[in-house]
């Protein structure tokens, strides 16, 4: 299949990105796959980001400006304007290797809904790759009939970022997939919704994205009530829109427990949330309380572990903090192993 004719819509939301954006757009401009439309949206920047992005004289670049609406709404705006066969999201402080789109498109056979590349974490100041975000080590094609990708994420770990994935545009439109407005950690929900709907997914081992890790202004690197609230909105949405609507998909309950683990882990390491935020966490944890079925391709020990995580989440925040945050037994998995050991030795 000749994939060189496919049009790729690259959506780049920008907010106060003047330090990075020139190099970011140059890395897009220099793609070996020439057939692109780059939709750059200035989301109410107060620095000189607009001047920089407007200086790009390339017919493939479409520049827009709007009042500040946040990342989700800005990406959704880009989705509305996109006309490409494929959609690709790039943040305004990340870079693309020159062959990124060509590498991703080379794997398309006509049936893949999502093609995901390998993401290197990148030190911008030092101009070097540091590590890699979680990804299968080898190429893997998944016929995603029963949440296989989401189960793989629960057990092995995958990168839930929206970037560095080539989405077939018709797949997104057919499933009315957009970002939830006004929350942090919108990528966690987007990852769930796209991987829940996708029928065919491929992960490739080539590095196709450089994810900057030394941007101290990044929202995801800060922790606040809004971060906690974002995660709580994610599990509420999954519970209401998927768990309750698709009871035959028993894996959803386990995925909710998996996300609860992330929230509790954040609470442990960043327990400076307001009392009001913690009270909301307790309330949401009790409301989002799924039932667990054995009809899921997980090992018995894994099933028990996720059920245990959900049981922990139903305790009040003070108990969670007292029982699970004390060193040296400072992780939920360690607590679980100790619990199993004590049960085994009591028999």
TrEMBL record:
Gene3D superfamilies: Spore Coat Polysaccharide Biosynthesis Protein SpsA, Chain A (3.90.550.10). Signal peptide: none annotated. Pfam families: Glycos_transf_2. SUPFAM superfamilies: Nucleotide-diphospho-sugar transferases. Residues 9-132 form the Glycosyltransferase 2-like domain. This is Glycosyltransferase. It comes from Chryseobacterium gallinarum.
């Amino acid at each position: 299949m000749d994939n060189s004719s496919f049009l790729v819509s690259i959506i780049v939301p920008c907010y106060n990105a003047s330090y990075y954006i020139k190099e970011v757009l140059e890395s897009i401009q220099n793609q070996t796959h020439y057939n692109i439309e780059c939709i750059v949206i200035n989301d109410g920047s107060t620095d000189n980001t607009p001047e920089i992005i407007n200086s790009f004289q390339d017919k493939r670049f479409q520049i827009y400006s709007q009042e500040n609406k946040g990342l989700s709404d800005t990406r959704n705006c880009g989705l509305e304007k996109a006309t490409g066969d494929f959609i690709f999201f790039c943040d305004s402080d990340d870079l693309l290797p020159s062959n990124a789109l060509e590498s991703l498109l080379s794997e398309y056979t006509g049936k893949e809904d999502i093609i995901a590349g390998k993401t290197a974490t990148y030190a911008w100041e030092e101009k070097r790759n540091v590590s890699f975000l979680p990804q299968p080590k080898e190429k893997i094609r998944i016929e995603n009939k029963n949440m296989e990708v989401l189960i793989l994420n629960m057990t092995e770990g995958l990168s839930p970022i929206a970037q560095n994935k080539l989405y077939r545009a018709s797949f997104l439109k057919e499933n009315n997939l957009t970002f939830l407005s006004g929350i942090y950690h919108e990528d966690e929900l987007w990852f769930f919704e796209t991987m829940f709907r996708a029928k065919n997914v491929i992960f490739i081992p080539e590095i196709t994205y450089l994810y900057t890790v030394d941007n101290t202004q990044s929202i995801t690197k800060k922790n606040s009530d809004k971060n906690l609230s974002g995660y709580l909105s994610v599990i509420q949405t999954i519970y209401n829109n998927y768990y309750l609507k698709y009871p035959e998909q028993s894996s959803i309950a386990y995925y909710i427990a998996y996300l609860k683990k992330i929230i509790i882990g954040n609470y442990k390491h960043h327990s400076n949330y307001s009392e009001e935020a913690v009270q909301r966490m307790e309330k949401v944890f009790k409301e989002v309380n799924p039932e667990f079925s054995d009809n899921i391709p997980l090992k018995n020990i894994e099933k028990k572990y996720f059920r245990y995580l959900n049981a922990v989440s139903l305790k009040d925040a003070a108990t969670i903090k007292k029982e699970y945050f004390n060193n040296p037994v400072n992780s939920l998995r360690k607590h679980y192993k100790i619990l199993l050991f004590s049960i085994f030795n009591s028999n």
